[in-house]
Amino acid sequence: MLTQFGQVLIFMIIAAGFVAVAFIAARLIGPKLPSKGKNSTYECGEDTEGDTWLKFNVRYYVIALIFIIFDVEIVFLFPWAVVFKEMGLIAFIEMAIFLIILILGFVYAYAKGDLHWDKPRPVIPALDRQIFKSEI
Amino acid sequence: MPEWLIDILITLTKIVIVEGVILTAVAYSVYAERRVSAFTQNRIGPNRVGPAGLLQPLVDVVKLLMKEDIVPAKANRLVHALAPGISILVALSTFAVIPFGDKILLAGREIKLQIADVNIGILYILALVSLGVYGVTLSGWSSNSKYSLLGGLRSSAQMISYELSMGLAVLGVILINGSFELDTIVQNQFGWKWNIILQPIGFLTFLVSAFAETNRTPFDLPEAEQELVGGYHTEYSSMKFAMFFLAEYANVIVASSVITTLYLGGWQFPYLQTFGLPDMLVSILQVLAFCGKVFLMVLFFIWVRWTIPRFRYDQLMNLGWKAMLPLALANLVLTAIILTLFKT
Amino acid sequence: MQFTLEFVLFVIFGLGAIATAVLMITRKNPIMSAIFLVVNFFTVAVIYLLLKAQFIAIIQVLVYMGAIMVLFLFVIMLLNLQDEKKLSEQFTYKKITAVLLSILLAMLLGTTFWFGFSGKYLRLADTAEKLGTAESLGKLLFTVYSFPVIAAGMLLLAGIVGAVVLAKKKFD
């Protein structure tokens, strides 16, 4: 007899089989005519300039860090939510304390401006030649 | 035939039917998107292949199969091939726990219209949603192209930001039902007691988060054509591109099904039992009710895409962290307080 | 020992966990290491499932695969770690750390084998069916372990403060 998770596993295996068949079919049917230009990295028709790995805004990292902490706090909330109706007031009070701590952390991060994402300030390049102006 | 063999055969049949229906639905939601967008923009849309262009998805698949699979020379070939596979697998796997009907009586055998009724159904869905990040991030990294990398990075930051409000919104539903089982949650939504009425704020936050998680407009920053060419799938072609494309629409259908199950009563058809119809008809009508609700949700997704312009990235992140997260948190606290007050 | 389906699955995923762990350490490319670590987490999650600890299994996927590894990928992309060379130059105490960790691993393995075969913890297996669900966990969390839950909350608060302070240093 299969357990419920066994059925999920079979579901995934069949889905994976479909993906594999599609990939193999594409490999068999599709033409293969690679050339240097075709296999180059896309950059609007120009040769690629510099390294792909640019320096990223450190905000991405901070967001990921704060996300992990909140994610773990939410994990604590799941078992609480499921027994909430049976446990009654004790569970409510304990989770109230836990939630206050969570909200405190959220307010702290909010107040310190770490949840804020700056509005982009685009730098419009100025042309040193005035050809366009004079032609008009 | 021994009993266990019959069980396995029934399960396999269910799985094959469900996956077949989903893949067809995914192909036709692409068609629906093109028709609806054409209607919105006063164009005609695909109408040449078959009656009203209904065979268009089939032709598209054949076309993509016949195309050359171009892998950039600088790319990491293994990860490049793996990423679209992860995307579509994660999207499809969610359906394993979604109940699309109650029970049906066939040849004296009660068959549950759900692949697997796992006791942590909601968490399973949330876990798969959190895995969806990998397909996008890895494709962005492995392509070794600036556009792809920027798209992948944007997408992962966006998806993790909205995952929190999604989890908190779902907690409200769990509080009311006291269970993670999707079947129980749908059973509890009989009559008018749909969760959209009991949890309006939770529904709103979940809906917005679902749009962000599926990378759909107004949150389609990862593939913003005007600035990132194609975003994370810039360097993809042939079947690998098709997988990303299918994954996007599979995700839309997944999101619609999950919203239907959690908030719109799942397969429940209000007051259907009071009409005294035969059991078989009731079961079929319930499955149809589920399909109808999902179809309307998919149409809503498409409608929004062709109506609302894209957010800027700072607006998107600020909305997620400064509006959606506090709102979902407030909804959770409010639900807990109301439940405690009404019990005593 | 019977050759049930469960046992076969356990062997497959157990071997998978070991293989991916070894592959993770031996890869030169940090991103490939991270990918193998993700696969490793998945196999471990399946083993949890086989032990009837569904909640822990799903949390393993949700937190480790869905959150912590995303941060890892971010850091690898952010720091532009193309190959291991740049990373290894920073660790001068690499060998000492390796020896210490090996001793720790040997001790862990030793205790596992010792108690695993002595049958000391086999009693728990009977009640495992009910222990693994979120309901039983929730009940324990809010009766027996209510204080550790609050303490964990405080710890996470400290984590947020730490993240904010660290980030501030870099911005200025």
What is the CA-based Rg of chain A, rounded?
A: 28 Å
Structurally, how many domains make up the residues of chain A? 1
- Computed Rg of chain B: 21 Å
Instruction: Kindly report the greatest chain-chain contact and the residue count on each side.
Output: A-B, 68 and 82 residues
State the distance separating the first and last CA atoms of chain A: 81 Å
Helix content of chain A: 55-70%
| Tally of domains of chain B | 1
Shape of chain A: flat
Account of the 3D structure:
- Chain A has 136 residues and is mainly alpha-helical.
- Chain A has helices spanning 4-29, 59-87, 89-111, 131-135.
- Chain A has one domain (4-41, 55-117).
- The mean pLDDT of chain A is 79.
- Chain B has one domain (3-343).
- Helix content of chain B is 67%, strand content 2%.
- In chain B, α1 packs parallel to α11, α3 (77-93) packs antiparallel against α4 and α10 crosses α11 (279-305).
- The longest helix of chain C has 26 residues, at 54-79.
- Chain C has a domain at 1-84: NADH-ubiquinone/plastoquinone oxidoreductase chain 6, subunit NuoJ (Four Helix Bundle (Hemerythrin (Met), subunit A)).
- At the A-C interface, α2 and α3 of A face α3, α7 and α8 of C.
Quickly describe the structure.
The complex is a heterotrimer of chains A (136), B (344) and C (172). Chain B has 344 residues and is mostly helical.
Defining traits:
heterotrimer, B: 344 residues, mainly alpha, two-stranded antiparallel ribbon, 67% helix, globular, C: 172 residues, Four Helix Bundle (Hemerythrin (Met), subunit A)
Give the arrangement of secondary structure elements.
The complex is a heterotrimer of chains A (136), B (344) and C (172).
Chain A: H1 4-29, H2 59-87, H3 89-111, H4 131-135
Helix pairs in contact in A: 2-3
Chain B: H1 3-40, H2 56-66, H3 77-93, E1 103-106, E2 109-112, H4 121-142, H5 146-177, H6 182-187, H7 195-198, H8 200-213, H9 225-228, H10 238-263, H11 279-305, H12 313-343
Chain C: H1 5-26, H2 30-50, H3 54-79, H4 84-88, H5 94-118, H6 124-131, H7 134-141, H8 146-171
